[in-house]
Amino acid sequence: MEPLIRIRGIRREYAAGDQRIAVLKDIDLDIHAGEMVAIVGQSGSGKSTLMNILGFLDRPTAGTYSFAGRAIADLPPDDLAELRREHFGFIFQRYQLLGDLDAVGNVEVPAIYKGMARGARRDRARALLTRLGLGDRLDHRPGELSGGQQQRVSVARALMNGGEVILADEPTGALDSASGAELMRLLQELHGEGHTIVIVTHDPGIAAMCDRIVEMRDGVIISDSKTGAVAQTAQRDPAKQGLAPALDRLREAFVMAVRAMTAHRMRSFLTMLGIIIGIASVVSVVALGQGTQQQVLQNISSIGSNTIDIRNGAGFGDRSANRIRALTAEDAEALSVQPYAAGVSPTVSASATIRHGATELSASVTGVGVEYFAARAFRTMSGVTFDRAAVATHAQEAVVDTDGATELFGEADPVGQVVMMGRVPVRIVGVVEASGTSFGPRSALNLFIPFTTAMARLSGQNYVDSISVRVADDYGMDTAEALITSLLTTRHGKQDFFLTNTDTIREAITSTTRTLTLLISGIAVISLLVGGVGVMNIMLVSVTERTKEIGVRIAVGARRSDIITQFLIEAVLVCLLGGILGIALALGLGEALTMAVPQMSLIYSTTSIVVAVISSSVIGVTFGFLPARAASRLDPVEALTRE
Question: Which of 22, 235, 552, 625 is deepest in the core (most CB within 10 A)?
Fold first, then answer.
């Protein structure tokens, strides 16, 4: 009869400095289905190494191995995992149970990778444990079980997928004599049911209970004797294929990842911290940038969107602008008769001390024309504003804003009151309120007088600081700007002025806000990357800490993809949860900031939030892949023996 296991010329060598040590030396061995074989020998004889090769936990340096007529020399890792999963059950000397799982969960592990339905595998696990005398310990974790009970859980796990071949490495070595005898009776029962059992032991009494004894010394077989008959072959269930088992494995990987995270809560939180800070920064910066931008643009719109300002100099930031005195009142008159000009007002800026009774305030004094208040969207609250006669006669009249009126006159009616502007008396004829936000420095008192009065009585200058043109509704801003530029260039003989309007300001502010948002977002992205590196480092540490767990999972049939999936899910969960907490932190900070500073406005972008969540997931996949890949490539023998 064709042997179930056939090995020929098997050698296993290990590097030791510049030398190579042969642990197995040209081993030939056949094991038939249904046999109960004891491999005996002193420590260091090579028996455990041989068992690892028989169970595909290790590869030989040389020689051939065939299982059920199938050569395994060149099989990829996942095919070897399938053979372990479908045909083998392992009983380890140190049990190798997973500490986070109860007895049922440990027994279920091989069936998860086989694709057995959740209900069916739980029922089978409970039945096996009950059969082995652990019916009252189903929900106990390994730390709550005795050594003999843990070994029985290990036996149940070996039988979970059928256990056609059971490999037991010193199964009684860590048990007392009573528990050891009980385990051997169980193995003999399994042998009687047709399981092929290979026991590695140094105990002659254990070996005598087998029907065949293979003795090893110094890496070679020195004797091979039979003591009993061959039993029938154990039957096994075929592996389940299709989408449902794959989805079930994915779900179990998710559960295992959650269990690992909850078992190390502090480590998981510290891993998330970099992601939380990065996501919160990105979302908050975008919200603050958009809120500020919208608020500024609303303020710009409120002061009129069809006004063009003409100023001396070559543009904003021109250091020589204060020495250029190109604009004159005559320029304003020339512009006022143009068809595109619905209103024109020269502007002269100055400052003065305003006194009324015992009250004395520093004021920003602006000399303006008749059309100024309409062009700047001021509302008249009481009294009147200037007329053309006041401008023509250099009238000593003034209009005050509402804030200044309160500071200067309190609850009294300002209209008709006379104040001293420096040494010049002026009479208040009206009170106005700005419907938008003024740009530039603000003072406690803003006073407006005819520009002719400002030039004659205050500054003594013969030029104006700027000219405001309100563009007619049937003219476009670009057209009006071109016509104004052409007219003034002709009048001056050169372009010694520049034009601005609310669109220009809007574009400048939008561009600046966008640049600052991108800059700070870039810093936040760097913090995200730093958080991602932290995730990778922690996952690498996790791989190191859980090396034995990984070895056990590989030994019972986990594919490389199963190990990668579990660690990737863990990394993604850490980053995704960190992203959600980061978004919550950003929303909380925004609410606190709005309560503390009511004038601040934050607009949260759905796009930025979605991108933040996606980014955290991508970080989890990107930075979790290398540790997951490293975990999947661990040598099962090395993983199982590493402390």
Answer: 552
